[in-house]
Amino acid sequence: MALTSETQRAWLNLTSEGVVDPMREIIDPHHHLWRRSGLPTYLLEDLWEDTQCGHNIVKTVFMECGAEYRSSGPAHLQVVGETEFVRDLALASRGQGKAEIAGIVGHADLDQDEALLREVLNAHEDAGAGFFRGIRHGGAHDPGRNLGWVNATPHANLFERKVFRRGVQLLGELGYTFDSWHYHFQNQAFADLAEAAPETTIVLDHFGTPCGVGDFAGKATEVASEWKLSIDRLARCANVVVKVGGLAMPVNGFGWSDQDKPPSSDEVARAHRDYYLHTIDAFGPDRCMLESNFPVDKLSLSYNVYWNAMKKITESFSLEERHQLFFGTAERVYRL
Residue 38: its pLDDT value, please? Predict the structure, then answer.
């Protein structure tokens, strides 16, 4: 049976809890919007249904997800349709007393001729009505395709490719950010890329996705050990910041999407605390930003539960450190 908004809502509502620290201002720097086959539609009203759960979500950043590309015109410019689609929703979100979409991170093939890439970036900027902030070109590649999740690129060596590296460097020259989503076993290659593009602000999405399924099922200790080493190396790259979130995807292996009842914030905090604390310790709060990764993580938990868990994990941090994690880092990095 296909997952619908109604069946998902009913399941998520099986776990209900009050809002922790409801006045804290939050920027959610990573969510998607889409009409997608096999998954519930997630548009502005759906985003607002989540952000109005009681937490004080002030602004958000849309992250590319292959939505609403142009169906005609030059192939390299079809990605700009996504920015046009989200721009209209961002304009509609203004002045409504609800979370405002304040930034757009679009997609471009960074592994293409520089003249074409510059044309794409200019088109995103023109279409973005002041919202366009950068590019995500994901490097996720599972050679054996046994994770049961997504390959963002057909290239196992994307981060090593000369033209791609030049594309990442160009983003920095033009004042744009570069986001990447990939798997934990690609983090060392990602660090090589970061060292090759020191003038570009590079955003590591979802901790670098420590995996817990496929070849990594039952190997949490080994995965965590490898992942920690790569995080420590990446932290030495001053141009890298991290989105700490996105650990509730099925590929992470916690299995919540298959349970009869979704987890509570206490369960999430217990399961995820070490990932958050290790990363924040390595990078510092001013280089980490909390993210929902909705509606992907909505497969496993509710928006309210996610932010409650984040507030519990960070309860020992100072007021300024928490401000950076929940608001300040995202505001600075994405120029909000």
Answer: 82
Instruction: Specify the pLDDT at position 39.
Output: 86
pLDDT for res 36: 86
The C-alpha atoms of residue 292 and residue 50 are separated, in whole angstroms, by 10
Q: How much is the pLDDT for 125?
A: 98
Query: In this predicted structure, what is the pLDDT of residue 1?
Result: 56
For 208-230, what is each residue's pLDDT tens digit?
A: 999 999 999 999 999 999 999 99
Q: Which residues are 42's β-sheet partners?
A: 34
pLDDT of residue 2: 73
Token pair belonging to 277: 């604390």
Tell me: cis bond preceding 295? Omega within 30 of 0 counts.
Answer: yes
Question: Rounded to 10 degrees, what is the CA torsion of 242, 247, 252, 256?
Answer: 180
Residue 188 CA, distance from chain mean position: 19
Contacts of 286 (CB under 8 A, 6+ apart): 324, 328, 329
**CA dist., res. 236 & res. 210, Å (int):** 19
The pLDDT score that the predictor gives to residue 169 is 98
- Residue pLDDT, tens place only, 297-314: 999 999 999 999 999 999
